[in-house]
Specification:
single chain; 423 residues; alpha/beta; Rossmann fold; 4-stranded parallel sheet; 8 strands; binds Double cubane cluster
């Protein structure tokens, strides 16, 4: 990586801590990703993105800001990035998946809180994340209680704007969310000084949809046996989709999909034909949380799909592109969020339908229900998901974990037993 120390210093980061944090990444990445056998050649680009993860892309965003554009960051797929894109800005998803930043987050948050929230605030408080520093403001949402209250603390350290997401999907809830989406559009216009037009919004909707469609194309290749790409690599691409320049990401992922489709035609796999196929469902796995995929794939199985926000929930629902009037477009954008089946909604039966459908589509042999420690929404929802899967005769196991490696051995033993049972 080029020398970005001056850039990080100018951003006000804690260079010492940041060095310590990044020092471990090359070895871990080499062991988990680069050492994989039969990797598609197209992964080279994503390896490059990772090698530059706190460098080149941050510089690009700073260059954008020098042109007077804005950078907006978020932690949730509900945030309508289309308005930011329409105003010429960049919308990025922030890191929230590292154990390193968890104890820093615990300085202001209770230990008995989801590691995703502790990690995200820890990145800001520890001066560890250049994306946080580059962003003009963070968009939070009222999804789970932990996040909702954490925004109040985050606002002490960084400009924070909170969108109120309804908990149900009735008519009144739709109206509330539509109003919130309008307010967000106004917020973006006020921050950027750009008036969003039907033309600029139409372009933005199409761009965001193209990114979602290329991810769907990538995931479609995973429906084959042998699967042409490992679960680890596929999820890494989804994780990077939140950071990368959208046009470049679409181009590089499309090229990779060409290669993967060719592999499918030739019957070439990243895992052997007939390897046990696992669908993971549950809480998101934000960068750099790769533990579960590594454990499953080093036990001889392959992850074929993630029903999560670092998986299908981030791209399966598109915004209707046929609307041409501004009000219709805003309404179409608002409808997308209400079609995402997050456990923060009640009831959330659509998620069960999604899991059952995806098990068929991706030909999964079993389901791993993964929830982060202290995540009540996903932990409680397990009961109904398990019941539906058992009724359908689909093996399921539940895992509750965090970002540390302390339970890795124990998890490996449980996964191996589950795979034995599937066989
Ligand atoms: S749309 S899943 S990205 S809210 S894991 S912080 S719920 S305690 S992340 Fe999420 Fe949006 Fe829903 Fe997706 Fe709370 Fe649970 Fe932690 Fe969570």
């Amino acid at each position: 990586m080029a020398d970005y120390r001056k850039m990080w210093q100018d951003l006000g980061m804690d260079l010492e801590k940041h060095d310590e944090f990044l020092a471990a990444v090359p070895d871990i990445y080499g062991e988990l990703f680069v050492s994989q056998q039969k990797r598609p050649a197209g992964m080279e680009y994503f390896d490059f993105v990772m090698s530059e993860v706190h460098g080149l892309r941050v510089k690009e965003l700073l260059d954008k800001k020098a042109e007077g554009k804005k950078v907006v960051s978020s932690f949730c797929v509900f945030v309508p990035e289309e308005f930011v894109l329409a105003a010429g800005g960049a919308c990025i998803g922030l890191c929230a998946g590292a154990q390193y930043s968890v104890p820093i987050g615990e300085k202001v948050l209770p230990r008995s809180l989801c590691p995703l929230i502790k990690s995200s605030l820890g990145f800001k408080l520890g001066g560890l994340c250049p994306y946080f520093e580059v962003s003009d403001f963070v968009v939070g949402e009222t999804t789970c209680d932990g996040k909702k209250k954490a925004w109040e603390i985050l606002a002490q350290y960084h400009p924070t704007y909170v969108m109120e997401l309804p908990q149900k999907k009735g008519e009144a809830d739709k109206e509330l969310w539509l109003k919130e989406v309008y307010k967000f559009k106004e917020k973006v216009e006020a921050e950027t000084g750009v008036t969003i037009t039907p033309e600029s919004l139409s372009e933005a909707i199409k761009l965001a949809n193209r990114r979602r469609k290329v991810l769907q194309r990538l995931y479609d290749t995973r429906k084959h046996d042998p699967v042409p790409i490992s679960g680890k690599d596929a999820m890494l691409i989804t994780q990077l989709s939140f950071f990368d320049d959208p046009e470049r990401f679409i181009e590089k992922t499309s090229a990779l999909c060409d290669e993967l489709e060719d592999r499918v035609a030739k019957g070439e796999g990243a895992a052997p034909k007939g390897a046990p196929r696992i669908l993971i469902t549950g809480t998101p796995m934000p960068l750099p949380s790769w533990k579960m995929h590594h454990i499953i794939e080093s036990s001889g199985a392959v992850v074929v799909c993630e029903e999560s926000c670092t998986g299908t929930r981030s791209f399966e629902t598109l915004v209707d592109e046929t609307k041409t009037g501004l009000n219709e477009q805003v309404e179409a954008i608002s409808r997308r969020a209400l079609n995402i089946n997050c456990a923060c909604y009640t009831p959330n039966t659509g998620r069960i339908d999604d899991i059952l459908r995806q098990v068929k589509e991706y030909k999964a042999d079993g389901v791993v229900y993964y929830s982060l420690q202290f995540c009540q929404s996903y932990s409680v929802e397990y009961h109904l998901v398990e019941k539906a899967l058992q009724e359908a005769g689909i093996p399921v196991m539940r895992i509750e974990s965090d970002y540390s490696d302390e339970d890795a051995g124990q998890l490996q033993t449980r996964i191996e037993a589950f795979l034995e049972m599937i066989k």
